[in-house]
């Protein structure tokens, strides 16, 4: 059989409280999108993968998919494409289906938010499709008592027998032609693709899901999954330390920004954003302390949306990633290394503004290299930062 996998990664992450779309939030050092694509490498068959990403995030989605699907170890052919999602999940799935190769027999639809779904669940869905079923969904037995609740009065109705209920997960698998036809007939919005197939009159069967296939919706979901994968932010963890280093050449054509402050009349620093080495070093140190990659991972030159952006905006974004990962900054120290400008006259103001931005004390100091190296020759500036972070529960 020929198989396509649509990975729906167009969610906003609003309920997660993330500054970036949900699929680009980091879990155990990788984005949810990267984690959700990794199990596909374990499927021993040719695949077409369609990633449905938010508008404006197609380039980073393509870069992340390429890093997993073409650079991972795989014994079979795999192609992928990235398409823009819509305003709703239903519209995003429609756009993903439109990109499925003509003639592919089966399609799996998987939510990037279920980042730790293992390969074995994908394989169970595929096996059921090969056995002739039109639609297949992975489910878990319901362990809680489930009762209907009136949204206006909060009055509850009698519970449905738990043995007749299942908690639905992804990937959900379908005969491609049947699902496309069902979506053509479907006029509403659905959070579940199997519901669309059922509305067209087809049966959907269940296979076993997996306890780790948790859908990341709220910040606590992300923290719980960090514990599953053995992240450093498990309860009982202590203070974590990270170091960040940044170096840029002076560029007379640009204004100088240091520590988020403007220095009129002084040559600026070259860089993808505004070249603020102090804020860059702080951001790098906080990401390192939190095991969330580095500046290049999140804001590198392959991310055109960050070209010319204020470095304080990058720091704010990074702080959102820390918040999502369940860690809190407690202290940052930065050493600025250059012949000029002197930061002593503005140090107090700079430290206060950075401390408010980071939400923890930030101390900035300055030094030179006695004429040695790039900074000593006056060609550029550098900064070294050390950051301390702790899990939320210890903050």
UniProtKB/TrEMBL annotation:
<feature type="domain" description="2-C-methyl-D-erythritol 2,4-cyclodiphosphate synthase">
    <location>
        <begin position="240"/>
        <end position="389"/>
    </location>
</feature>
<keyword id="KW-0511">Multifunctional enzyme</keyword>
<dbReference type="InterPro" id="IPR003526">
    <property type="entry name" value="MECDP_synthase"/>
</dbReference>
<keyword id="KW-0479">Metal-binding</keyword>
<feature type="region of interest" description="2-C-methyl-D-erythritol 4-phosphate cytidylyltransferase">
    <location>
        <begin position="1"/>
        <end position="239"/>
    </location>
</feature>
<feature type="site" description="Transition state stabilizer">
    <location>
        <position position="15"/>
    </location>
</feature>
<dbReference type="Pfam" id="PF02542">
    <property type="entry name" value="YgbB"/>
</dbReference>
<dbReference type="InterPro" id="IPR018294">
    <property type="entry name" value="ISPD_synthase_CS"/>
</dbReference>
<comment type="pathway">
    <text>Isoprenoid biosynthesis; isopentenyl diphosphate biosynthesis via DXP pathway; isopentenyl diphosphate from 1-deoxy-D-xylulose 5-phosphate: step 4/6.</text>
</comment>
<feature type="binding site">
    <location>
        <begin position="272"/>
        <end position="273"/>
    </location>
    <ligand>
        <name>4-CDP-2-C-methyl-D-erythritol 2-phosphate</name>
    </ligand>
</feature>
<feature type="binding site">
    <location>
        <begin position="367"/>
        <end position="370"/>
    </location>
    <ligand>
        <name>4-CDP-2-C-methyl-D-erythritol 2-phosphate</name>
    </ligand>
</feature>
<keyword id="KW-0548">Nucleotidyltransferase</keyword>
<feature type="binding site">
    <location>
        <position position="377"/>
    </location>
    <ligand>
        <name>4-CDP-2-C-methyl-D-erythritol 2-phosphate</name>
    </ligand>
</feature>
<comment type="similarity">
    <text>Belongs to the IspD/TarI cytidylyltransferase family. IspD subfamily.</text>
</comment>
<dbReference type="Pfam" id="PF01128">
    <property type="entry name" value="IspD"/>
</dbReference>
<comment type="similarity">
    <text>In the C-terminal section; belongs to the IspF family.</text>
</comment>
<feature type="site" description="Positions MEP for the nucleophilic attack">
    <location>
        <position position="215"/>
    </location>
</feature>
<dbReference type="InterPro" id="IPR029044">
    <property type="entry name" value="Nucleotide-diphossugar_trans"/>
</dbReference>
<dbReference type="GO" id="GO:0050518">
    <property type="term" value="F:2-C-methyl-D-erythritol 4-phosphate cytidylyltransferase activity"/>
</dbReference>
<feature type="binding site">
    <location>
        <begin position="294"/>
        <end position="296"/>
    </location>
    <ligand>
        <name>4-CDP-2-C-methyl-D-erythritol 2-phosphate</name>
    </ligand>
</feature>
<keyword id="KW-0456">Lyase</keyword>
<feature type="site" description="Positions MEP for the nucleophilic attack">
    <location>
        <position position="162"/>
    </location>
</feature>
<dbReference type="GO" id="GO:0016114">
    <property type="term" value="P:terpenoid biosynthetic process"/>
</dbReference>
<comment type="function">
    <text>Bifunctional enzyme that catalyzes the formation of 4-diphosphocytidyl-2-C-methyl-D-erythritol from CTP and 2-C-methyl-D-erythritol 4-phosphate (MEP) (IspD), and catalyzes the conversion of 4-diphosphocytidyl-2-C-methyl-D-erythritol 2-phosphate (CDP-ME2P) to 2-C-methyl-D-erythritol 2,4-cyclodiphosphate (ME-CPP) with a corresponding release of cytidine 5-monophosphate (CMP) (IspF).</text>
</comment>
<feature type="binding site">
    <location>
        <position position="246"/>
    </location>
    <ligand>
        <name>a divalent metal cation</name>
    </ligand>
</feature>
<keyword id="KW-0808">Transferase</keyword>
<dbReference type="InterPro" id="IPR020555">
    <property type="entry name" value="MECDP_synthase_CS"/>
</dbReference>
<dbReference type="GO" id="GO:0008685">
    <property type="term" value="F:2-C-methyl-D-erythritol 2,4-cyclodiphosphate synthase activity"/>
</dbReference>
<protein>
    <recommendedName>
        <fullName>Bifunctional enzyme IspD/IspF</fullName>
        <ecNumber>2.7.7.60</ecNumber>
        <ecNumber>4.6.1.12</ecNumber>
    </recommendedName>
</protein>
<feature type="binding site">
    <location>
        <position position="248"/>
    </location>
    <ligand>
        <name>a divalent metal cation</name>
    </ligand>
</feature>
<feature type="binding site">
    <location>
        <begin position="246"/>
        <end position="248"/>
    </location>
    <ligand>
        <name>4-CDP-2-C-methyl-D-erythritol 2-phosphate</name>
    </ligand>
</feature>
<dbReference type="GO" id="GO:0046872">
    <property type="term" value="F:metal ion binding"/>
</dbReference>
<feature type="site" description="Transition state stabilizer">
    <location>
        <position position="272"/>
    </location>
</feature>
<feature type="site" description="Transition state stabilizer">
    <location>
        <position position="22"/>
    </location>
</feature>
<dbReference type="InterPro" id="IPR036571">
    <property type="entry name" value="MECDP_synthase_sf"/>
</dbReference>
<dbReference type="InterPro" id="IPR050088">
    <property type="entry name" value="IspD/TarI_cytidylyltransf_bact"/>
</dbReference>
<comment type="pathway">
    <text>Isoprenoid biosynthesis; isopentenyl diphosphate biosynthesis via DXP pathway; isopentenyl diphosphate from 1-deoxy-D-xylulose 5-phosphate: step 2/6.</text>
</comment>
<dbReference type="InterPro" id="IPR034683">
    <property type="entry name" value="IspD/TarI"/>
</dbReference>
<dbReference type="InterPro" id="IPR026596">
    <property type="entry name" value="IspD/F"/>
</dbReference>
<feature type="site" description="Transition state stabilizer">
    <location>
        <position position="368"/>
    </location>
</feature>
<dbReference type="GO" id="GO:0019288">
    <property type="term" value="P:isopentenyl diphosphate biosynthetic process, methylerythritol 4-phosphate pathway"/>
</dbReference>
<feature type="region of interest" description="2-C-methyl-D-erythritol 2,4-cyclodiphosphate synthase">
    <location>
        <begin position="240"/>
        <end position="395"/>
    </location>
</feature>
